[in-house]
């Protein structure tokens, strides 16, 4: 898998990144630690070198599973983790980073990200200057190699960039969720900020495995995803039918096609989760798919059958 440069750093990342929210278990169902570990190893063996996690995923459980799974190949992989918005004061960031270092069993984190802007989920408002001072200090000490932000708008991204180099933005981005294109993407392109797209398969919708009668198990956060709401879900089913002829022509799965579309966009890499080794290996194959300008335009037009009906709220879930 051909690696790409993260922002202006000297860090090389894979265009397909393994996401590990599900490894934390909280807000997911049917997750098994042994299967998760095998998935991480399978991803690495298939050429995925970059793994995204967060302290909030299972209160550090995801980080710990990742640290155990890849400790023998640490020098060959890139770790990206995040600090939650309830810990954005200077000392809190320093302590949170230390916990993540211990969880990951490493002495440095390649990419350390602010998970959500200050004030999210009822958190205390902390000036971004203070948070960036802590991140810059960690970078100077060699505890982190690059700074990123997640779920930031263009305005918030520009403000953070006043106080230090931001090398990545992690927004929700898929064929079915494209608000970043009209907000922060132009700024990222201009300033060489890598877009790490999360939910590039729209939390599984773009795999085609969720039929019209699907019911989530209790505790699965995807039940609150706006794309699964009845008014949107029907449009999703119609659009997926229109995408299938493209998968037939390309010899791919729907999920692989969705990932290939994302990594063909400017500055974008795709964070894809996997419950087991087979899913991880299948995700990696998306990096081999080449889409022509005509195919990208065709998919763009098809996808708008969903996105043209969404509002401008950037949050994918109705957690309230």
Contiguous uncertain segments of 5+ residues: none
Query: What is the number of helical segments per DSSP (H or I, 4+ residues)?
Result: 11
Average predicted confidence as pLDDT: 94
Strand order of the largest sheet: 3-4-5-6-7-8-9-10
For the record, the CATH architecture stands as Alpha-Beta Barrel
Tell me the helix content. Answer: 25-40%
CATH topology: TIM Barrel
Would you count the extended β strands for me?
10
Structural class: alpha/beta
Q: Rg, please? A: 18 Å
How would you describe what is shown here?
There is one protein chain. By secondary structure, the protein is of the alpha/beta class. The chain has a single domain, classed as NADP-dependent oxidoreductase domain (TIM Barrel), CATH 3.20.20.100. The protein contains 11 helices and 10 strands. The strands form 2 sheets. The chain has an 8-stranded parallel barrel, surrounded by 6 helices. α1 runs parallel beside α10 and α2 crosses α3. It is globular and about 50 Å long. The relative contact order is 0.15.
